[in-house]
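Your task:
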Amino acid sequence: MQRFKLFIPLLVFVALAAVFYGVERKIQGGDYAPTDLPSALLNQPLPAFSLPALDDGRILTNSDIQGEWFLLNVWATWCPTCHYEHPFLVSLAEQGVAIYSVDYKDEALAAKRWLAEKGNPYKATIFDAAGSFGLDLGVTGAPETYLVDGEGIVRFRYQGALDQQVWDRQFAPQIANLSGELKASEAEQ
């Protein structure tokens, strides 16, 4: 029995390796995407908030970021993936895509410095130092991006970095659906 106890760590290691191997095979086969996390907010209004703007401290609320559809990007300077994603967001903003952001559990000075150095693609940045709005959004980590329609309804959520492939595969069809719904409702009137 004593000798068997010596093999317990090896058996645990083999079991964990098998689990990781199985998940990796599913990812490679396209059966599993770690970014496909459901959102409780899907087709629900954006949670109410009243938080300071990063740039000037004025209080922002839902009414300040409504209008036409927009992206709500959750980011932070401590997030390595956000560094990768940022140039693509700048490019989207240059193409006319409306992007608002939530600076999530971050330091204001670091975030201001980041935007000054890397460019600011955001129409406004909500400063969520405590993470309360992020909690209401259901944020599991940064970056996350939400597609919100003109009425403030969350239509889509993506966890992970945005790039051209993700934009083309995930966001473009969602935006086309929004545009189609808008045209259909205008035709009914």
User: Anything to note?
Assistant: DSSP finds five helices and seven strands in the chain. The chain has a mean pLDDT of 86. The first strand starts at residue 50 and ends at 52.
